[in-house]
Amino acid sequence: xxxxxxxxxxxxxxxxxxxxxxxxxxxxxxxxxxxxxxxxxxxxxxxxxxxxxxxxxxxxxxxxxxxxxxxxxxxxxxxxxxxxxxxxxxxxxxxxxxxxxxxxxxxxxxxxxxxxxxxxxxxxxxxxxx
Length: 130
Prior knowledge:
16% helix; 42% strand; alpha+beta; 130 residues; Thrombin, subunit H
């Protein structure tokens, strides 16, 4: 039975505003892959927290797959470079769209602070404007 409290470890922001989307580029991490590879896919993030993110893709990335991620936060000139692990996938039938839940497994403290500040700004904006 739920006590009504958030069970997530980190506060997150869902349903990110269309006028300020958070874009990410991702590629499957490979030890044999060149570091400077240009083979990146793009996605609009559906939610984000210090612990991870959630987005749709046209590929089944596979549970346990490691991804190199480049996340561009609104109103920031910095790009967050981190590594995430696919922890959950769902396919929307009959389309070929997959939702991917990603857990950050290698992310710096400064990058965590940038994400946290972005989440807090989105939450504060919603409280004061709606």
